[in-house]
Design brief:
By secondary structure, the protein is mainly α. The chain has helices at 11-29, 31-48, 52-69, 73-207, 212-243.
Length: 245
Amino acid sequence: MKLKVIKNTSPASQLSDAYLAALQARFHHGQLAGSRAAEEIGRESVAIGLETLDLARIHHQALAQLLATDGDSSTREKLTACAAGFFIEAITPIEETHRIALKANSDLQQLHALLDERMVKLAETNRELQRQVAERTTVETALRNSQQTSSQLLRDSLIQEKHLRAMAHQIISATEEERHKMSLQLNNVIAQTLLGINLHILALNKDVATNQAKHAQEIADTQRLVEDSTHMIRRLTHEFSNQHE
């Protein structure tokens, strides 16, 4: 039920007049007559922004006016008791609003606490992410350096391999040359030995008729020369084989 008062124009004044009329109706016609009016006054108080103390001030003003008209003590006691119950009903919407506001404030504080906690966790996550990014950057840099090092080592290895091949070729060439030199040396020794044998045989042919004893000595010397040459050829062949096995 919307209470309308024509005498005053401000919302607080209109509410004060309505409070007085509703309280008077409650006192004269019983609780059922004023309960709905008290609840409506409370909602109107909330709507225009009045607090509990503001409504208490209006209550005291209305009660004082009513007490001034009804003079006997018994009536005053009843009016005071009735006004107390009416006031409790009237402030119920305001107190409910306060409870809602307190609950909302508590929820807001919890929300702020939750947001603070999440901000802390987010900061920790960001730090961990930055650390992981730094570690990944370090690993990628090390990997690139390792790849560069591996590539350089591969190039160095290929160069070294070419050098080794060249050295092996030189060694093989030197070995072949050494074999050639030793072969020439062996051929020279054999040729000189055979030439010496041939000269001894020629000398024997010329002098065979003149001096037989001397020929016997020459023949012995020739045989010894042949034996020495055979030993020398065997020795050179053996050394040549051992050097190139």
